């Protein structure tokens, strides 16, 4: 049985694009890959038509079930998304459980913040000797006049294993003038323990860390659904997956590091508490973080190796685009990828910072809280309306980005001043972020909380890239991309074109070229019944538009579009002229 290429005509209202949309869900990220599919067929030719303007549910189902590859990618992405969501939810549950115990203790004691390898209690930023006092230094013999919790349990110097293994505790302040707190065992257990002032001050560090871990877990849970709901560019998906994989690897090291720190501060003999508050916490967290890293590595390898390879090899190769048009289009696609990343990175980073500002000690010691709230309101006013549009349409990020989302300085007659406004507001956002780094409080939070630092650095990198690419696109204004794309009815925001795969630069085919075949209105190839490949015309005097194809036998089986001609038929005579 001979093989034939199946051309897919995708209609979006009037424009016709001859491409095969391969919708792939990888990590619940929808990609449009240009491809050709092969079927065993007879001389009867096949023409598949997909209506882009149809019902969204039907369209999504068509993309998912197009072939085995799309179905497999969807199933992988679907289960991967929910697996990571479940893992992050379990981490959030574990962090919340242990944080609840420490928070009950520290809230009952009503003590302020501390910092340092030598534990210090401070009430102002920046920290200095006048605003801080030493609490505990690791490996220093404790003050013999201080009563420690282990003294109330036994005369021996051992560690009391508290934990949360089904026993539970009741926290009772001794009085209103001291920091001491009594922990009473429940469920039939006998005994109680009094935590000294020094011990409770030490507990502020893990309490603060666990609160931040809960915020991180929520941010990454929402990230899974952001990937599910959007249709960003392939580079944006790979960039987000790289960030997730790097962070997953970091959290494994951080868990091991904090286990050693808390053991030296809380549970080792001679420490102010001598209580193991985390008997199974770190082992439980590690058992969840390792599968999370494996899933991220798997997703990253599949995206970079499989999806990118398929995208590069099976890309539908356009013929006739000059090199400078391809270069302009690549800059536009790079800018679109950066804008897609900003859709989540900026709201997530600002949300983490505002949560710190409103719900932690920073709200009480910061001198410029009003200014920080003003910056947050500015971000909200500029960003929220267009973010809602982004959620609904999966195509725009912020209001200023919506003006330049499909803007590459050339497309759809976008005016040059719109490009200037995009660059201006980008500089404005970068200026606001730079002013935030000038703040002592923000810098302190940046240093102490790696997750906020990660989002901040990522956002700065992305916004700088957007500004640079915006300037490049502005210089490309009115350089011919809009005219070229309009003449070919091609959607530039969907596909890229590899310059090294250009037909003008490709090696000569193994087999000689066939003759040109006219195709109207669908895909018609030479056959025994119609060796010329010409379609029959009902009225020979009609003026029609025909599509000319040049079939080239290649390993990739690509059918190259040669062009369009406007023809006038009069009996056996035919005169044609190029329509573009």
Automatic annotation (TrEMBL):
Keyword annotations of the record: Membrane, Transmembrane, Transmembrane helix
Transmembrane intervals: 17-35, 72-94, 218-244, 293-311, 331-354, 374-398, 419-440, 446-474
Coiled coil: none
Protein name: Uncharacterized protein
Organism annotation: Armillaria gallica (Bulbous honey fungus)
């Amino acid at each position: 049985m001979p093989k034939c290429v199946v051309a897919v005509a995708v209609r979006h209202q009037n424009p016709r694009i001859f491409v095969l949309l391969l919708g792939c869900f990888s990590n619940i990220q929808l990609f449009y890959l240009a491809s050709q599919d092969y079927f065993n067929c007879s001389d009867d030719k096949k023409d598949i038509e997909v209506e882009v303007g149809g019902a969204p549910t039907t369209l999504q189902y068509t993309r998912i079930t197009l072939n085995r590859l799309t179905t497999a990618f969807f199933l992988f992405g679907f289960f991967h998304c929910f697996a990571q969501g479940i893992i992050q939810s379990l981490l959030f549950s574990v962090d919340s459980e242990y944080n609840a115990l420490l928070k009950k203790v520290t809230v009952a004691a009503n003590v302020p913040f501390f910092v340092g390898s030598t534990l210090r209690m401070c009430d102002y930023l920046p920290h200095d000797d006048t605003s801080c006092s030493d609490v505990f230094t690791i490996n220093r013999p404790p003050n013999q006049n201080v009563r420690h919790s282990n003294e109330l349990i036994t005369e021996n110097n051992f560690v009391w294993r508290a934990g949360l293994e089904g026993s539970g505790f009741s926290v009772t302040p001794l009085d209103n003038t001291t920091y001491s707190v009594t922990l009473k065992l429940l469920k039939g257990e006998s005994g109680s323990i009094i935590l000294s002032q020094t011990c409770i001050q030490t507990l502020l560090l893990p309490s603060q860390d666990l609160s931040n871990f809960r915020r991180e877990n929520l941010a990454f849970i929402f990230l899974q659904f952001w990937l599910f709901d959007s249709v960003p560019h392939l580079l944006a998906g790979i960039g987000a997956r790289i960030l997730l994989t790097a962070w997953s690897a970091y959290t494994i090291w951080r868990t091991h590091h904090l286990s050693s720190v808390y053991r030296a501060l809380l549970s080792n003999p001679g420490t102010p508490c001598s209580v193991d508050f985390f008997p199974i916490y770190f082992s439980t967290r590690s058992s969840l973080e390792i599968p999370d890293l494996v899933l991220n590595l798997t997703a990253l390898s599949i995206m970079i190796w499989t999806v990118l390879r398929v995208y590069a090899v099976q890309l539908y190769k356009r013929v006739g685009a000059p090199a400078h048009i391809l270069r302009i289009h690549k800059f536009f696609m790079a800018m679109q990828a950066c804008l897609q990343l900003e859709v989540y990175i900026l709201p997530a980073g600002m949300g983490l910072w505002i949560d710190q500002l409103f719900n932690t000690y920073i709200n009480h010691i910061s001198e410029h809280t009003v200014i920080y709230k003003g910056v947050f309101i500015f971000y909200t006013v500029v960003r929220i309306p267009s973010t809602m549009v982004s959620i609904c349409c999966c195509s725009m990020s912020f209001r200023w980005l919506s003006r330049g989302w499909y803007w590459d300085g050339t497309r759809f007659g976008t005016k040059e001043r719109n490009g200037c406004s995009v660059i201006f507001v980008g500089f404005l956002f970068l200026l606001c972020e730079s002013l935030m780094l000038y703040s002592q409080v923000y810098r302190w939070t940046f240093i102490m909380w790696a997750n906020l630092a990660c989002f901040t650095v990522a956002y700065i990198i992305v916004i700088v890239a957007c500004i640079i690419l915006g300037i490049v696109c502005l210089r490309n204004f009115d350089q011919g991309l809009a005219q070229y794309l309009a003449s070919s009815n091609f959607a530039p925001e969907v596909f890229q074109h590899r310059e090294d795969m250009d037909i003008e630069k490709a090696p000569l085919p193994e087999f000689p070229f066939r003759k040109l075949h006219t195709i109207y209105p669908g895909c018609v190839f030479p056959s025994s019944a119609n060796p010329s490949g010409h379609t029959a015309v009902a009225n020979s005097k009609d003026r029609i538009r025909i599509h000319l194809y040049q079939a080239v036998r290649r390993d990739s089986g690509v059918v190259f579009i040669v062009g369009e001609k406007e023809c006038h038929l009069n009996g056996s005579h035919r005169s044609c002229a190029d329509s573009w």
